[in-house]
Amino acid sequence: MATATGVYHSTYTADLALRHTRSEHARLAIVAIALVILPFLATPYWLTVVNQIGIAAIGAIGLNILVGYTGQISLGQGGFLAVGAYTSGLLVGDLGLPFPLAMVGAVLMTALVGAFFGLPALRLKGLYLAIATLAAQFVIIWVVRNWDVVTGGTAALAVPAGELFGWTVRGDFTWYWIITGCAAVAALAATNLFRTGLGRAFVAIRDQDIAAEVIGVDPLRHKVLAFAISSGFVGLAGALTAHYRLIVTWERFTLEVSILYLAMIIVGGLGSVAGSIYGAAFMILLPAWIQQLGQSVGGTFPALSRNLPAVQQAAFGLVIILFLVFEPRGLARIWQRMKDYIRLWPFRY
Amino acid sequence: MPLPALRAGEVRPTDGSRAHVVSRAYQHDLNGSGLERGAVQVEVDAVHLHFGGVVAIEEVSLEVRQGDIHAIIGPNGAGKTSLLNCMSGLYRPQRGAIRLHRGDGDPVDLTTTRPSRSARLGVARSFQNIELFRHMTVLENLLLGRHVHMRHRLAASLAWFGPARRQEIEHRDLVEEVIDLLEIPALRKLPVGALAYGLQKRVELGRALCMQPAVLLLDEPMAGMNAEEKEDMARFVLDVNELAGVTTVLIEHDMGVVMDVSHQVSVLDFGRCLVTGEPDVVRSDERVIKAYLGAGSEPMGAGT
Amino acid sequence: MSPTAPRTGPGTSRAPYGSAEVDPRQATEPILALNNVEVIYDEVILVLRGLSMSVAEGRIVALLGSNGAGKSTTLKAISGLLPTEDGEVSDGSITYQGRDITHTDAATIVRDGISQVMEGRRVFEHLSVHENLLAGGYTRSHGEHADDLDRIYTYFPRLADRRSQTAGYLSGGEQQMLAIGRALMAHPRLMTLDEPSLGLAPLLVEEIFSIIGRLNDELGTTILLVEQNARLALDIADHAYVMESGRIVLDGPAAELAANPDVQEFYLGLTEEGARRSYRDVKHYKRRKRWL
Amino acid sequence: GGDGDSAAEGDTDGEGGGGEPIVLGGIFDLTGPTGDVGTPYAEGARAYFANLAESGGIDGREVTLSSQDYQYDVAVAEQHYAQYKGEGAVAILGWGTADTEALVGQVTADELPYFSGSLSEELADPAETPYNFLVGTTYSDQMRIALAHIAEDSPGANVAVFHNDSPFGESPLADGEAYIDEAGLDIASYETYAMPGGATDYVGELSQARGQDVTHIVIQNVASPAAQLVSNIASQGLDVQVTCLNWCTDELFIELAGDAAEGVWGVTPWYTANLAEAEEGISAYLESEGQEIEDLNAHFLQGWYYADLMTTAIAEVVDSGDEVTGPALKAALEGLDTYETGSSPGIDFSEDSHKGMTVAPVLEVSGGEWTQLVEPFEP
Amino acid sequence: MNIFVQLTVTGLTNGAILALAALGFVLIFKSTGVINFAQGEFLLIGAYAVYVGTVAAHWTVGILLGLLVAVVLGVGVERLILRPLVGQPIIAVIMVTIGLGIFLRSVVQIIFGNRPLPFPDFIPGGSVNLLGATVPANRLWGIGLAAVTLAVFTVFFTRSRHGIAMRAVADDQQAALTMGISVRRVFAMAWALAAVSAVIGGMLVANLIGVSGGIIEFGLLVFPVVILGGLDSVPGAMIGGAIVGLLITYTGGYVGGGLQSVVPYVVLVGILLVRPYGLFGQVRIERV
Ligand SMILES: Nc1ncnc2c1ncn2[C@@H]1O[C@H](COP(=O)(O)OP(=O)(O)OP(=O)(O)O)[C@@H](O)[C@H]1O
Ligand SMILES: Nc1ncnc2c1ncn2[C@@H]1O[C@H](COP(=O)(O)OP(=O)(O)OP(=O)(O)O)[C@@H](O)[C@H]1O
Ligand SMILES: [Mg+2]
Ligand SMILES: [Mg+2]
Predict the structure, then answer these.
(1) Which of E17, E18, E9, E28 is nearest to E194 (CA)?
(2) CA A57 to CA A42: how far, in whole Å?
(3) Taking CB atoms and a 6 Å cutoff, what residues make up the pocket around ligand 2?
(4) Strands D360-366 and D265-267
(5) Is residue E130 within 8 Å of residue E9, measured between CB atoms?
């Protein structure tokens, strides 16, 4: 959070508000307007990219609640996404629930599964826990693939297009509004969480777990709760994927996805809601850009075009390396520095 | 005796008079004990703790009375910190009991509760090596001290408007009083990691105080400070005790502080409790001199 | 520090532990000198603002100052540890035995004979006591360890008892002894100690200080001591410096400083009459007068 | 949302060269888990269009293939698909089973003819998936042919199917089992074993198969794991007859498996062995690369002919003077006469069936080369 | 019985290779606290280097080239990428190694393409009859080679002062500096040695499965191995390697159904719940 130089509050209420200065309000307004205009300007391709970013942002916020704020590393993201996607898809497909209700069901279900796989967090820390959550990843996917009766096994699960009051919800444009709305609500909810006691307790566990326990934070309850809340967000992302894409395949939820999400929050900024969004955008835009760039350059250098995918991948890896070597604390930190720089501009030091 | 609370800009007396002490009045009672002054607050009963072959505490018994500053001294490795850890539930002694009296019904045995529950019962503490939440602000650290007194409902937290916000404001009120008491209003929004060592120690005391403890355990709050800084810290410890009446267990190696500040002193040596008594009695105890103070040591605290 | 220099057992005075050639007590030449040293952290935080001091060979020099004055920073500047904390000596110079060591790296400085005992003990928690000591002797060859270990175990019998215990589980005092012992393994000519009494019981503080005295006396090791317990520090030191906000504000022979009224008030906690103030009687919170 | 707007621009201004370029999309796996066979396939398709561009396109109208690697990642495939749609692509050359299935709904809605590397029978029914065309014998048919051949060659065989652990691998399993009963084949047992990704060996699975007294193993996987499996079989001293289905019946398999490949059977509609002589385009390509027909990989041909078939249909539409749109292409594909490739059985689509081929030969590795063992036949 | 022998030998070979790969990982973690997610790529590069040398000249050249590349790679990575990150949050360091993995993998692909290459067999082929089972000889050689390498490393670290120096650096870098231990040198050494062990491991994997990207996937199994053995334990890497190797082959051989990818992890979690720092991992000292 910005150091509130020169801003004073006369009531606790004002002090607790998220935005204090006029420029902060203005920034919010600009972002909101941009989000409204965006779908009208974007090409279909970029619209799908934006939608993907929206969904990823929700998942990344969820993961950040667990990893960035509570300090419990999880590699089970892909599995939890799968739980969300399959639950929601099946609730609509098999039980005929309206899709918003199914999404709520998916959130609850994923939270439950997340809480279950969070139980080892009681005894395990750091990388040991990370590998235990890897078990969640593999077990969930294994179940999905082998529980043929319910999930359809390895075959893709077709999800009927969402219907609401007789109106079929489909198409990138329509989904843009739903996804962006969900992402906004998710971001707000996560921000709220961390300005209340519950969220602070999570951060306390991350910073100093023994001290947290001694001031009354029950580690069992809070760690499991963090897993549940985080998974709830992830479940929402999974459910959105299912209804937006109309097809659920387990191959969308592999370990690479878990790692990609981790990359998002690290590059974006651990323990930052805004960072999760930046990170999601960055990690999805970067390959897309590199690809576009590669294609346009590929024409000029035929030798390059042959190796294009590998070159693109190499560039992707290199950008991650350079980025982190340059700023290990992520985009959120860079943004913060830029703001500080501008705010303090004529008077550095 | 409701006196007006200190307003911004009010000047404190600096001539060493006690005047300012009573000039502050607080809405909230920081003392979480329901007992009468002088009643037994904590009862350590034949506690025994060992780690593998290392005996840390051996049959230690002592009583801490409500309203006292009860010092625990002893050589390094005597088991002082371990005893505090037993009280706050971090260590589970193999034998013995530590009973916390609460004034309502039977005492609770602290040796069988988990740390978070001990906290709920009113045990608050600071640590030998500062254990603050480094990335949070002073305010957030103190608010975390209120954790046990808050209701944590997920839906409300996510929604913010409504009960969650009301609660934040409500508890902020008490926290502000502690901030005022410890004189750290300027630090409110600073991350604690950036604070000077002495200030961090003060914030840690504040965090414990926010819990409205029945008993406050302080593990070497003045280590690594020079005389002047020690004087400040001693003053805060005294204020907490005198103003709020909080029962305090204090581990400290500086005999000057211990003798001046405490009502009762217990001496541990090799896990055993050598003696408990008033400072003057303890200071002249042969065993204590031999085990702890050193024969050559000048009589500390003399000349007061 | 020639490795071939003959060594005698512990307890023998004038053992050529640090330097074989010169009787340190005769030397007046400073072994270490800081000239106008400026230290900046993170390229913005100026901590030392032109600090100058010198340490004469074979002496014990004390450095006093309140929290955050920059004492530890000074020691880190000497031992070359600043780069590990994003700090740098931005101006001035540090000379050791007449050579400029301002930007020499930490490992080389240890080889040259300066050992630091860091604030907060910093023992290798997961290594045993014995292994900690061996790590301390890293700069020396294997063959020389046996004698050194014997010597250190004689100085600190308590460590001998706990030889194979994991250092992380030692009590605070034992860790402090280990930290000093570990530093001695490198055969320092100059040993810098950062708050060795931190968190130690009175008896142990006395013990540690008497050992520091013995080291200086018996082995001729020069000692630069940072200490909050000003009474003890001034007792043992030959010379003392007082620093505030990154500068030396006062210096002189230890005895002289101990008599200085300001030092008495702020560092020794004595009243104007020279008696010790009771902590109960101190009522004012902000009464800092500072040297400038 | 975004309608396919390529149609609207079809014949706006006929300046000079014969109109707008016709865009096709390609979703290939070059670096993913099936990259070993995906790369030659993609190369074949790309080489074809490069050649086409050089020879002036279709009636002077440029045809371009916009293609990218998707690393066998469904989400990336979706992204590419959306991009091609935005670029006004009229048809797609796809790849994997998983992504083809994932895209099927959109493909149907967008009315874009879709050729996929996947020959999963589930995608062959025009009633369900009207825009998916299977340019080859389906995996299920390949399996049926393999089983029929095994039953005939050694009655009472114990068959173990080793398959890629994915929709691709599992696609023909159930059909194969059903076929044994339907056709009354003399096969004593039929078990399936998944080949886990990233395994260094399949000794465990082979041990299980031993429990079944296995005599024949059918592999539905790509070349590298198949070669691994065959080497394991050899080093274990197991005496079994191995049959590869189309994604491991190729030259890479022989190269990797070395001696262990000798005598392995293959069932595939695509093979170089009977490519009598390279057609013009291919020889031009070979010349530019300094290669011989023998250097060509079967999957390269597969990619090449997929592209050629699609182009033939486009030419048909262009000739007829219609706009080149998805539905027009679909109609053209269904209306085409049997399309002969010279290196596979003829391809024929109809309104009721999008199975391009129904027959396949059985090949055998002999002297380090795939040779034809049995003429193409229908199961 | 012979199935059991067969599975056991297979499992142990895989285990031995895993142990080698894990050893490199453990070395790095032990002394620098870095979790190297690019270990699989190190194996891959090792395999290609040995391949190139062997194909171009002789297997001795191949191994020498492999070791050379390993040292250059290890030291280079430490110098260019990890040194700037000293003191940064551990998870950022993890991510850098993930980025490094992607980068290295792609570079290898640009140079060699993604077509798998058959590894020249310089380890004698053929089969041996062992307790009634036919066991490929190269697997037995693999176990032997891995065992020798591990033994050499173990002696090096317990007998030489570098062992203590490395552990000291792992505990407290600053304090290690005050002992005159050059933290940089220790880091460089750890990375170089890790890369060396990866080259040997990569060579052995390649010998089994050919030179291809599949080596990386194999490398992924390093994680269960090191967690099981304990992140900072050399013997742990060996035992962990053996257990995971056997677990996978036994599951494949007796259970099947794709459970190979699940069972090791489930067993792992079970073991971790009893021993939260793995079988031999160092218990983190937490005192307040
Ligand atoms: N978690 C633990 N595991 C093993 N031994 C321990 C543990 N905690 C404490 N000990 C041992 O118990 C004994 C008492 O330690 P404790 O920390 O209570 O001493 P202390 O009186 O607080 O000393 P100090 O004044 O140095 O802080 C010591 O010998 C210590 O090594
Ligand atoms: N790594 C660092 N980065 C930034 N600032 C630092 C760093 N280390 C110390 N400082 C700042 O430099 C000042 C002097 O610190 P230093 O540790 O040298 O003080 P000190 O005199 O040793 O105090 P103490 O008695 O508490 O040990 C302090 O204000 C501190 O906040
Ligand atoms: Mg203690
Ligand atoms: Mg200091």
Answers:
(1) E28
(2) 19
(3) B 197; C 41-42, 45, 47, 65, 67-73, 85, 87, 119
(4) antiparallel
(5) yes
E273 vs A13: which has the higher pLDDT: E273
**For residue B229, what is the domain's CATH number?**
3.40.50.300
Single-letter amino acid code for the residue at A347: F
Cβ-in-10-Å burial (0-12, 13-18, 19+) of D138 comes to: buried
Residue B68 within a domain: yes
Q: What is the pLDDT of residues A209-259, one digit of tens each?
A: 899 999 999 999 999 999 999 999 999 999 999 999 888 888 788 888 998
Residue bearing tokens 């840690």: B204
pLDDT at B288 over 70: yes
pLDDT value, residue A343: 65
Strand pairing report for C222-226 and C60-65: parallel
pLDDT recorded at residue D16: 40
| E-state strands within B201-246 | 215-219
Q: Which residues of A touch D79 (CB under 8 A)?
A: 45, 48-49, 52, 288
Give a yes or no: residue A28 inside a domain.
yes
Pocket test for ligand 1, best of B55, B57, B80 (most atoms within 8 A of CB): B80
Q: Quick one: B97 and B199 in the same domain?
A: no
Grade residue B71 by pLDDT with cuts at 50, 70 and 90. Answer: very high
Reported ipTM: 0.83
The amino acid at B144: L
Distance of CA C183 to the CA centre of its chain: 10
Residues with CB under 5 A from ligand 4 (ion): C 72, 119
Closest residue CA from atom 10 of ligand 1: C169
Domain with B167 in it: 132-211
DSSP states along C237-259: -SEEEEEETTEEEEEEEHHHHHT
Domain limit, last residue, from B211, B236, B261: B211
Structural domain includes residue B26? no
Delineate the domains of chain C, giving CATH numbers in brackets: 29-259 (3.40.50.300)
Structural domain ending residue among the three candidates B164, B181, B211? B211
Cβ neighbour number for residue D256 with a 10 Å cutoff: 27
Specify whether B107 is located in the same domain as B180.
no
pLDDT band at D18 (very low <50, low <70, confident <90, very high): low
Q: C41-80, pLDDT tens digit by residue?
A: 877 888 999 999 999 999 999 999 888 889 999 999 999 9
Tally of CA atoms within 13 A in the half-sphere of C22 that contains its CB: 16
Span E123-171, pLDDT tens digits:
666 777 777 777 777 788 888 888 888 888 888 777 778 888 888 888 8
CA atoms E111, E113, E118, E123: torsion sign: positive
Beta strands in chain A (DSSP E): 157-158, 162-164, 167-169, 247-248
User: What structural domains does chain E harbor?
Assistant: 2-120+138-274 (1.10.3470)
Could you tell me the two tokens for D56? 């002036």
pLDDT at D10: 38
Whole-Å CA distances, A262 to A139, A256, C40, D77, E76: 19, 10, 35, 22, 26
Q: Report d(CA B110, CA D320) in Å as an integer.
A: 91
Tally of domains in chain A: 1
Which residue, chain included where needed, has tokens 């501008």? A342
Our CA-based measurement puts residue E33 at a distance from the nearest CA of chain A, in whole angstroms, of 11
Q: How far apart are CA B99 and CA B121, in angstroms?
A: 11
Q: Measure the CA angle with vertex C146, ends C142 and C147; round to 5°.
A: 120
Looking at residue C38, what is its pLDDT?
Answer: 94
**Could you tell me if residue B9 is inside a domain?**
no
**pLDDT value of residue C24:** 43
CB contact under 8 A, A123 and E276: yes
Read off the pTM: 0.85
Domain with A57, as residue range(s), is 20-254
- B256 confidence band (pLDDT: 50, 70, 90): confident
Residues B96 and B165 reside in one and the same domain: no
